[in-house]
C-alpha cells in the first residue's frame, strides 16, 4: 500500500507557498510532471483533494490547508536540524542575489570571493538594480536575497550589513579652475551631478543645494561608473564614495571638496524573501551578513 512520504508532504508545502506546480518544481529541483504525480499520489492515498486551481494559482482546499498547516512546522524543524549538521561546501544550487551599483562597485567582489570558498558548488545570479526595484523583485520572488540601501521602510527578514561614506568630489584641475572650496554657495556656480531619481543619492544631493527647489537643475546619470568618469573628466562635481580617493584608486585626479557638506554614511542592509524556507538561502544569508565589513 502506498504511504505518503516526506517528499510528498514537502511538495505540497512548497506548492502552497509558491502558488504553482512549476514554481515548486524549480524550488525542489525536479520537473512539473513529477510534482503533479506526487500530489496525485498524495490525494489518492489520503482520499482528499489538497489543491484546487483559482486563476493561475493553485490554492489549498480546506482539508489541504489543515494538512499543510500541521506539516509545515514539522518540515521546517527538520530542515533546521539538517542545516545544523550540513557543511556549506556540500550544498548545491543557484542563488539569486540583488544589490545596488555602488555596493557592487565597492564591496561585491570581496563578498563573492569569500562566498565561493564557503559555497564552492553554488552558482550565483547577480542582479544590479535600484533599491526600489530590488524590493519589488524580492516581493515577486524574482530574487532570493538583496543588498539594499537602508531607508525608513520596515523590511522584514533583514540584517544590517555595512556602511559607506559619501563625499563631495571634483577633478583637481576643475576644482582649481573654479576656485571650489567655499561650500554650499559653490553648488550654484558649477554643474552638479547625481544618480537619477529615485536613488537615495539624488535626495541627498538635492538637500545640499542652496535652494532645494532648484533640484530640477541637477544633471543626472543612471550608471554609477559613468557618473564617476563624468566627474573625473572635469564636467562637474558630485557626491561619490570616499573609497575612490583612497589607496591606489584609478581615479587619482579626484579630490574631496566641501567636507562640511558630507552626508551621513549610507547604510546597507541585506534582506531575504519573507516566505523562503530554503536552507541554502538561510546559510548564504547568514554567511554574507557575518562576513561583510565596512
Q: What is the C-alpha radius of gyration, as a whole number of Å?
A: 25 Å
Instruction: Tell me what the CATH architecture of the largest domain is.
Output: 3-Layer(aba) Sandwich
| Broad shape | elongated
CATH topology of the largest domain: D-Maltodextrin-Binding Protein, domain 2
The CATH class of the largest domain is identified as: Alpha Beta
Taking pLDDT < 50 over at least 5 consecutive residues as the criterion, the unreliable ranges are none
Largest sheet: 5 strands, mixed
- Helix share, percent: 40-55%
What are the secondary-structure elements, in order, as H or E? HHHEEHEHEHEEEHEHEHEEEH
> How many helical elements?
10
- What is the rounded distance between the termini? 59 Å
Number of strands: 12
Class derived from helix and strand content: alpha/beta
> What share of residues are in beta strands?
15-25%
User: How many domains in all?
Assistant: 3
Q: Can you give me a brief rundown of this structure?
A:
The chain has 294 residues and is an alpha/beta fold.
Topology record:
Blueprint: H1 6-18, H2 21-27, H3 32-46, E1 51-54, E2 57-60, H4 62-85, E3 93-99, H5 101-118, E4 122-128, H6 131-139, E5 145-149, E6 158-164, E7 166-171, H7 172-177, E8 192-195, H8 200-208, E9 219-221, H9 224-232, E10 237-241, E11 254-256, E12 266-272, H10 279-290
Parallel strand pairs: 3-4, 3-5, 8-9, 8-10
Antiparallel strand pairs: 1-2, 5-12, 6-12, 7-10, 7-11
Helix pairs in contact: 1-2, 1-3, 1-4, 2-3
Domain HTH lysR-type: 4-61
Keywords: DNA-binding, Transcription, Transcription regulation
InterPro entries: LysR_HTH_N, LysR_subst-bd, WH-like_DNA-bd_sf, WH_DNA-bd_sf
Amino acid at each position: 500500500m502506498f504511504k505518503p512520504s516526506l517528499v510528498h508532504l514537502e511538495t505540497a508545502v512548497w506548492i502552497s507557498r509558491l502558488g504553482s506546480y512549476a514554481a515548486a518544481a524549480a524550488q525542489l529541483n525536479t520537473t512539473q510532471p513529477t510534482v503533479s504525480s506526487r500530489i496525485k499520489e498524495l490525494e489518492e492515498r489520503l482520499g482528499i483533494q489538497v489543491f484546487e486551481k483559482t486563476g493561475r494559482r493553485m490554492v489549498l482546499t480546506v482539508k489541504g490547508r489543515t494538512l499543510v498547516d500541521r506539516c509545515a512546522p514539522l518540515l521546517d524543524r527538520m530542515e533546521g536540524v539538517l542545516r545544523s549538521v550540513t557543511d556549506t561546501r556540500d550544498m548545491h544550487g543557484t542563488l539569486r542575489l540583488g544589490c545596488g551599483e555602488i555596493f557592487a562597485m565597492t564591496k561585491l567582489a570581496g563578498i563573492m570571493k569569500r562566498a565561493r570558498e564557503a559555497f564552492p558548488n553554488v552558482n550565483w545570479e547577480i542582479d544590479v538594480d535600484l533599491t526600489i526595484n530590488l524590493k519589488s523583485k524580492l516581493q515577486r520572488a524574482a530574487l532570493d536575497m538583496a543588498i539594499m540601501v537602508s531607508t525608513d521602510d520596515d523590511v522584514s527578514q533583514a540584517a544590517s550589513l555595512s556602511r559607506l561614506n559619501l563625499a563631495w568630489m571634483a577633478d583637481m584641475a576643475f576644482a582649481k579652475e573654479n576656485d571650489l572650496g567655499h561650500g554650499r554657495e559653490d553648488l550654484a556656480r558649477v554643474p552638479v551631478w547625481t544618480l537619477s531619481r529615485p536613488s537615495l543619492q539624488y535626495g541627498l544631493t538635492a538637500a545640499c543645494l542652496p535652494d532645494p527647489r532648484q533640484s530640477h537643475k541637477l544633471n543626472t546619470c543612471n550608471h554609477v561608473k559613468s557618473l564617476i568618469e563624468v566627474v573625473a573628466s572635469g564636467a562637474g562635481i558630485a557626491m561619490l564614495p570616499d573609497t575612490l580617493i583612497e589607496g591606489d584608486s584609478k581615479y587619482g585626479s579626484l579630490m574631496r571638496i566641501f567636507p562640511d557638506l558630507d552626508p551621513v554614511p549610507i547604510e546597507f542592509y541585506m534582506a531575504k524573501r519573507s516566505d523562503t524556507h530554503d536552507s541554502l538561502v538561510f546559510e548564504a544569508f547568514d554567511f554574507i551578513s557575518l562576513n561583510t565589513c565596512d
